[in-house]
Amino acid sequence: MDERKKLMQLGVFKNQADSIMYLIARSIAQSDGPVGSWSLKIELDANGVECSTATIGRYLKMLDVKGFTIQKSNQGRVLTPSGKIWLDGMKNRIDRAQMRDNISRTIHVNEYAEMVDLMQVRKLIEVDAARLAAENATDEDIRRLEATLQLHHRYVEDNVDPVDPALDFHLAVTQASHNKFMAAVLSLLVFEEKQIEATIEVLRTREMGSVYVVEHDDIMQAIREHNPQRAESLMEAHMQAILDEVEKQVEEFDENNEDLPRWIR
After folding, report:
1. Which of 198, 231, 197, 194 is nearest to 216 (CA)?
2. Domain 3-103 belongs to what architecture?
3. Rounded alpha-carbon distances, angstroms, from residue 30 to 39, 59, 73, 103, 258
4. Which pLDDT does position 13 carry in this prediction?
5. 3-state class (DSSP) for residue 70
6. What parts of the chain have a pLDDT lower than 50?
7. HEC profile for 156-183?
8. Which fold has domain 107-256?
9. What is the mean pLDDT of the chain?
10. In this predicted structure, what is the pLDDT of residue 49?
């Protein structure tokens, strides 16, 4: 895959033209002096991007119009101060997008046994998030929490799979912490959890809905009362109970499928 396509997959650039202008500007910045179309074509070809010198010339004129490059007699282009600022900003956005992509791939759950590790990370995040939520929750946060909790109760009463509203409550607690990094990481973890749990017909945590909703009630009350110590303690006990159920389910899988290779389980 050429570098232009890789950049487009990150979602940083609106179109391919923008990504090529970035690659051209980067090549100019890496040169010791002015750069012409032929040198840029060689550089682009090396990165798997096929582009004629005429097309490169058009992109250079677009960069000129934006004030990012300037012609140096007949020697080629150099970046302007504005061009250097723009390029540094784009590099930063690309680095951040690549980091998000790497994190997403790393936490992808391939088998249920990995849910133990996932739940351990969730516990670390959510115990602290509950404490922060009790300290920082606004009236709007409280209303959002109450709405997810009401839906959770309704699902349990109607004997409907309560996993989604239960997870929504946990997400709402983390949002109420007003720590955007906790909320972002938990969103990724919950997404992976939903994907793998949807493939399991009998799930121990799914059968615990009526118990978990009561525990959510208690956590909600501690947050409503702005009692961080109690919210933290209740969430720790709640997450440990969930982790225990996940570990039991993994043990059951291992016992029932002991003759199967691990990648099939």
Report:
1. 231
2. Orthogonal Bundle (1.10)
3. 12, 18, 20, 29, 56
4. 85
5. strand
6. 258-265
7. HHCCCCCHHHHHHHHHHHHHHCCCHHHH
8. Four Helix Bundle (Hemerythrin (Met), subunit A) (1.20.120)
9. 86
10. 87
